[in-house]
Amino acid sequence: MTANILSEVEPEMRVTSLICLIAVVSASLAACASGPREPARVDYRSFGNGSNTPSSSASSSSRSPQRGTMNCGSGYTVRTNDTLSEIAERCGVSMSDLASTNGLSAPYTLRVGQTVAMPRPPVHVVQRGENLYRIGLRYGVPFQQLASHNGLRAPYEIEIGQQIRLPHGAQVASTTSGGSSRAPTSRLTNDRHTPPPAEAGAPSFDWPIRGQVLSSFGRRPNGERNDGINIEAATGAEVRAAAPGQVVYAGSELAGYGQLVLVRHSGGFVTAYAHNSRLLVREGDQISRGQIIAQAGATGTVDRPQVHFEIRSGVNPVDPMSYLR
């Protein structure tokens, strides 16, 4: 099944092992910046660097390490002059969670040698149709960061029922679609529906390619969800940018999408173009409306040439049919 894509992506996405796909996907999407092309960076929204990196030089023992640079395991032993806020910074957890876990209240008095227990990290149980990218979008965490946090390498394959550890402080992002998002399905259908009107003041987008809509936006009878539309295409056909913007990801590290391009536009919108046979742009390129960015194909998890196209407002998928002109 086709993976669902996108969110607000920042150019910072890079990948380190691709774990970072770019941290788009790449940096974490950036978080992955150290890896193969990460799927964007992590901040997704930043696609930036999702994982914390210790400072290049060790700090003097009197100075606190950077946030999250210490692996505190299940607990931390208090040292002279330690404060709860400093321990929270070092261990990469919130002070409120740390205080709650240890039954502490202001002024948070600690004693040398005391063991401060670490909050139990939250987890997400993988559901049918989910992939690491979509889980990251749901919690506002770059997928590269999730990959690094869970020791996963590209193509970041996960299984139904698998527990994905989330960074402390991760929160479910609100979505307009309700419920958990599902990846687009490769089961092609010809359902017709009336799309909701585009939000007031929203930009218009051109069709990336002309062809029959094989699979429309929304939930399917089998419970799966398509966060975009799948458009029939001939292999090698020109795929064009739906609106002017900047390429924040161009690669094939994200399982299920094949050769994929993500473009960020004004107003917080992002478009995705998947299953291409060849990419004609690179990350960071500024592109114009109608510019040829790829050639259509059948890469990824589809069995016939097509373009999987998504439009997202922030991290929320919207029906492309409401915006296409």
UniProtKB/TrEMBL annotation:
**Gene3D superfamilies, from UniProt?**
Glucose Permease (Domain IIA) (2.70.70.10), LysM domain (3.10.350.10)
Which sequence ranges are marked TM in the entry?
A: none
* Pfam families to which the protein is assigned, alphabetical: LysM (PF01476), Peptidase_M23 (PF01551)
Region of interest (Disordered), ranges? 43-76, 168-206
* Composition bias, Polar residues: 65-76, 172-188
Q: Does the keyword Hydrolase apply?
A: yes
Query: What are this entry's molecular-function GO terms?
Result: metalloendopeptidase activity
InterPro entries per the record?
Cell_wall_metabolism_enzyme, Dup_hybrid_motif, LysM, LysM_dom_sf, M23ase_b-sheet_dom
Domain of life here?
A: Bacteria
Asked if Hydrolase is a keyword of the record, the answer is: yes
Domain (LysM): residue spans on this chain: 74-118, 122-166
Compositional bias per record (Low complexity), positions renumbered to this chain? 55-64
Q: What keywords does the record list, in alphabetical order? A: Hydrolase
> Mind telling me which CDD domains this protein's record contains?
LysM (cd00118), M23_peptidase (cd12797)
PANTHER family associated with the record: MUREIN HYDROLASE ACTIVATOR NLPD, PEPTIDASE-RELATED
Family listed: Belongs to the E.coli NlpD/Haemophilus LppB family.
Q: Give the protein's recorded name.
A: Murein DD-endopeptidase MepM/ murein hydrolase activator NlpD
